[in-house]
Every structure is written in structure tokens, then in C-alpha cells.
User: What shape does this take?
Amino acid sequence: MFIQEFVDATNPQCSGQSDLRRLFVYDPARSTPLMQFTQMVMRAPGPLSPGERELIAAMTSQGNHCLF
Assistant: This one.
């Protein structure tokens, strides 16, 4: 098995099959705190604008070969 195939098999989010999305659909009530936390981190006042935070997240995902 090639290394990328192994990574894709062990990290489904990297092949576009996000486990988090499945969790959100399966049990939305339990995923609400995670969504609230994410919004707080990405949108709360701070030294970086929300756009800069989004750009960092997108660049990190690209570096990890994951869909964003």
C-alpha cells in the first residue's frame, strides 16, 4: 500500500469523508457545543481578524492535504 493510500484510509477526512460531518448529522445536539466553540474561536475579538483565522485554517488543511 502506498503511503498516501494509508493516510487516506486512516484519516477519512483527508479523502473528503469527514467524521465530524457524520457526527453532526447523527447527533446534532451533541455537536452543538463543538460548533459553538468553533464559532467563538473563529469570531471572538482578538489580534487576528476572522478572515485571517479562516485563511490560517485553510492553509493548514491544504498543508495536511485535507478538504477545507
Q: What stands out?
A: The helical segments are 3-10, 19-26, 28-43, 50-63. The chain has a mean pLDDT of 78.
